[in-house]
């Protein structure tokens, strides 16, 4: 039975411009055979670092180097080749914390930021994935419907709100605001469209409060 677990891959060198190139890079870095090579679904410039790219992908069978019941992030060294920086590594994760870009257009062709925030106990990508399948609405359909939007999904630990943690909606809203400032140039006029599910809507409301206060 195929694995539909989604991985995020960060730190991809800019010279890898196509999903096929990223597939080959991952296969080489993880020493995978042709039957175990990944399917790369999205590839975009990283929102917080314009010097690398971020991809989402899955494997027919999860590679041994990406297994571990308690792990959600793995740092993998890239093959030491002449066309790669010495000591370059990439990061795989399944937690999808922070922003993940899903658009297909270049950043220069995007006229708005469309930011999706999941709900209580949700997952930035998994909450929008079909059961027992690979289709993810945010990644596989929305960018086609709004081709000139920079589609970003935002991951955070929503379970902390119901735990004994001192983290509150205000804290989550403040964290989202700070993360948002980190991916947008100061004074940038590109509008932001938020989509929030359940608790995500309340977090977005907190962000609106902080933004309103900062402008007064």
Automatic annotation (TrEMBL):
Gene3D superfamilies in the record: alpha/beta hydrolase
This protein's GO CC annotations: endoplasmic reticulum; membrane; mitochondrion
UniProt main location, coarse: endoplasmic reticulum
Compartments (UniProt record): Endoplasmic reticulum; Membrane; Mitochondrion
Family matches, as InterPro entries: AB_hydrolase_fold (IPR029058), SERAC1 (IPR052374)
Keywords assigned by UniProt, alphabetized: Endoplasmic reticulum, Membrane, Mitochondrion
PANTHER family on file: PROTEIN SERAC1
Name the UniProt record assigns to this protein: DUF676 domain-containing protein
Organism this protein belongs to: Fusarium torreyae
